[in-house]
Amino acid sequence: AQKITQTQPGMFVQEKEAVTLDCTYDTSDPSYGLFWYKQPSSGEMIFLIYQGSYDQQNATEGRYSLNFQKARKSANLVISASQLGDSAMYFCAMREIDTGNQFYFGTGTSLTVIP
Amino acid sequence: NAGVTQTPKFQVLKTGQSMTLQCAQDMNHEYMSWYRQDPGMGLRLIHYSVGAGITDQGEVPNGYNVSRSTTEDFPLRLLSAAPSQTSVYFCASRRPGGNEQFFGPGTRLTVL
Q1: CB-based contact (8 Å) between B43 and chain A?
Q2: B26-36: average pLDDT
Q3: Nearest C-alpha of chain A: how many angstroms from B40?
């Protein structure tokens, strides 16, 4: 079974609008971390936001927030007030803290911001 | 502070050739990892290390070797390159207990 599932291969959003990128995960480890990375066309991987499984509140970093729904095993990324520079690939990832040090990545969502 | 560096940026090999992808970090991070990125597949873990002298296999280790003689360096060796190893390779590091994983700029490898 896939550890991380991103079901949206591509998304479009109007500039200045908000957009939600979906991510579901699968783990039996009670202790885990969830991550979102951005990969622009230049290729580098940029860390955006982190959510721990025991964190009570949703993580926020500037225009990025993580909508963490533990019972549904979902960790959606919300980008508010989209900018043209947000056009990129976005990857959701998970690390199972008790069972190892491996990171598992989803297949990514390509976001295009339309002017 | 250069972060995570990788060399070379681009490489073309013929089937059967060997080569080493270099990775170095100057943040004194104990944990280092190698990933490959293929279209539609996301990043998949090849090998990782939790400290000098300690390495372990990830999701797709076949055809690759690693060693970790120092904290700073974590080279990835392809002993006999195959076309299936055509990919973009990323090295990453983090400190124990740290949440953020720092990535290098990647190496684009083509095997003909």
Answers
A1: yes
A2: 95
A3: 6
Query: Can you give the three-state secondary structure of B63-97, one letter per residue?
Result: CEEECCCCCCECCEEECCCCHHHCEEEEEEEECCC
Best interface-test mutation with B: which of A49, A102, A109 has the largest number of B CBs within 10 A? A102
* pLDDT tens digit sequence for B44-53: 999 999 999 9
By percentage, how much of chain A surpasses pLDDT 90? 89
| Nearest chain B CA: its distance from A64 CA (Å) | 16
Band of pLDDT at residue A102, cut at 50, 70 and 90: confident
Q: Chain A within 8 Å of B74 (Cβ-Cβ)?
A: no
Residue range A21-67, pLDDT digits in tens: 999 999 999 999 999 999 999 999 999 999 999 999 999 999 999 99
pLDDT at A100 over 90: no
Classify strands A109-114 and B4-7 as parallel, antiparallel or unpaired. unpaired
Residue type, B60: V
Query: CB distance from B42 to chain A under 8 Å?
Result: yes
| CB–CB contact A43 B48 (8 Å) | no
Residue A113, φ and ψ in degrees, nearest 5: -100, 125
Residue A113 CA to residue A11 CA, distance in Å, equals 9
Give how far B46 is from chain A: nearest CA, Å. Answer: 10
